[in-house]
Amino acid sequence: NAKAVPQKDTACVPFYTMVTNESYNGDIYQWILPDGTVLNGDLDSIYIPKRGKYLYQLIAIDTMCNTLDTFAMPIYGFSDSIKAEFEPVFDSCSNILEVDFKNHSKDGITYFWDFGDGKKSSQDEPKHYYVNPGEYTVTMIAVNAACGIQDTASHQLKLTQRVSSDDFSINYEPCRDGGDVKLNAWGTHFQEYNWS
Question: Which candidate in 67, 86, 88, 113 could, as Cys together with 121 as Cys, close a disulfide (CB 3.0–4.6 Å)?
């Protein structure tokens, strides 16, 4: 069975990490490095120069039983800078107080949201429903625990509910076949009327 354990699989770049080969029943070992290079033998340490995902693959070969096993070992490098940024998206003409939060942060790993109404979230891009119209301060904290850094962004939301009047009248002569029916509608904050 092929198995390897890095001393750390996530850190701020650049960094070195030691690797322990915990494979058993193999007598030949090969490593496939992220650039495709094949290395025979053990891999004692790894250098991660830039941010990103680096995939190392270990192949353990048992020549006596003519079998092999592979093990994938991803290593992640993170930047030591972070920028929290988000955009609230909502329909200001809707009476449904629903807001989508689009996360535009750079180099955050986890996110913590405070919607200003007592509700919180740890999703990357949450959707939130407000019960009441009003002004809310929304705060998002972007955290990169691997580098021990965080950044905060806030937006002021003003959510209103539209007051609409949906009055209409019907004018027709019920005793006359083939007569016209006249529908009159008036209201505020409507963009379209659908009759059925």
Answer: 113
